[in-house]
Amino acid sequence: MVAWWIALAALWLVLDDTVAFPELMTGAAAALIGASAAEVVHGQNLVRIHVELRWLRYLWRPLLRLFPDTVRVLGVLARQLLLRRPPRGEFRAVRFRAGRPDDDRDTARRALAKALGSFAPNSYVIGVDAERDIMLVHQLEPRGGAEELDPLELG
Amino acid sequence: MNEWLLAAVVLLAALVPCGIVCALRSAVDGLVALELAGMIDTAILVLLSEGLHRQPFVDLAVVAAVLSFAGALVFARVLERWV
Amino acid sequence: MSVRHLAEYVLLVLGTGTLVLSAIGVLVMRSVYDRLHYVGSASVGAALVCIAVTVRESFSLIGNKTLLIAFFLLVTGPVLVHATARAARVRERGGWSIGDGEDVDMAQ
Lengths: 155, 83, 108
Fold this sequence. Notes:
The structure holds three protein chains of three kinds. Chain A is α+β, with helices and mostly antiparallel strands. In chain A, 52% of the residues lie in helices and 12% in strands. Chain A has five helices and three strands; from the N terminus they run αααβαββα. Chain B is flat, with a radius of gyration of 14 Å. The termini of chain C are far apart. By secondary structure, chain C is mainly α. The longest helix of chain C has 33 residues, at 61-93. In chain C, α1 packs antiparallel against α2 (32-57) and α2 (32-57) packs antiparallel against α3 (61-93). Chains in contact: A-C, B-C. At the B-C interface, α1, α2 and α3 of B face α1, α2 and α3 of C.
């Protein structure tokens, strides 16, 4: 709870940018309310995750793809408008070990794969199928192999 | 008129395609257009803040960004399960 | 014109252009799955606009807030796209996973 309070109070200071006493007290109270709410939600154990830092070793891949993929997506639009060439968007799948639904590490792995697999605009993740152990992805311009669809290689 | 206000006017026009999709397409297509409109609105507020030198518009942009994200997520959930 | 001014204008033009083209993309694309990719590109465009203001204002009150907005849009854009795509597929097929007769390319 203290960690939440510190983070939220720091956010208040960034957004408010004043050290007048009434403002500081208001910020402290607002951070306390936010930290209490975070503790209540955390205490319900709705989602538990455990991220391993080694999973982030390929974090540079989706970050580096951000601008080229944006150009790619806008290029598809340009081809549609200027050359009347319709987009070839399609669903693709990649092998992905789903793991157990109640395991902290497996939950974090799936969440990271979905979030960072959807980071660059050309691809987004629909979901991880636990029965078939595959991850379903849609690409506007189909390209690349497994590392394009699962850039952190968490599967 | 400065470059920031000019950009804001251009982005206002970019809301028209979003409105057309909301009006003429399905509910999910409308949600996609709404999400895009939320991002355009946030950018417009940021540009107005800079163009008019009015700092409170940036606070509006912060609130708009957070609320349009939360609202779109709620819509997506409702469209998936109940409507 | 200083390098900083040039950077402001380049970011502003790129960001605004990306947002306008993304709006056209959402209108022009035929399927919801293709439209969704333009929400992703729009988050990049909006972030570029915010970063243009940050370059102009430097790390002041406004600059910090617009940088925060840019970061927020880049992080939440993919979440929105994922949630909407899932909702679209569930509405269309009753479930989001691959159907029995559905042919999907398996990436190697």
